[in-house]
Amino acid sequence: KQQNAGPDDDVQEDLPTNDNDDELLRIRHSSAHVMAMAVQNIYPEAQVTIGPWIDNGFYYDFYFPETTDPETGETIEARKLTEQDLKKVKKEMDKIISKN
Questions:
Q1: What is the distance between the alpha carbons of residues 46 and 39, in angstroms, rounded to a whole number?
Q2: How many helices (H) and strands (E) does the chain have?
Q3: Quick check: helix, strand or coil at residue 10?
Q4: In degrees rounded to 5, what are phi and psi of residue 78?
Q5: Under 8 Å between Cβ of 67 and 39
Q6: pLDDT tens for residues 57-82?
Q7: Distance between CA 26 and CA 55 in Å, rounded?
Q8: pTM given for the model
Q9: Cβ contacts of residue 45 below 8 Å, gap of 6+?
Q10: Whole-angstrom Cα distance, residue 51 to residue 18?
Q11: Coil, strand, or helix at residue 80?
Q12: How many CB atoms lie within 10 A of CB 41?
């Protein structure tokens, strides 16, 4: 609950949750799928492992296996997404959403 205090009133407002707002739950569920699509568009080697909606949003775990660069033959180590990667993912999510 969040309190919105005005000068003369003390009002409590129920914030939406997954339990009491089906629309919020659909948004979180759909957002998780859009994020997975975006990551796989940018990083085709990324494997989606798990990604449910949660109480305060959504998430996905991705596995980036060790791969070989097709041009150089160099080994690309397994890794995690960086802050820079997440910026690219956000832009890709915006593109996906704007197409639909």
A1: 7
A2: 2, 8
A3: strand
A4: -60, 145
A5: no
A6: 788 889 988 888 888 999 988 888 88
A7: 13
A8: 0.69
A9: 64, 65, 67
A10: 16
A11: coil
A12: 15
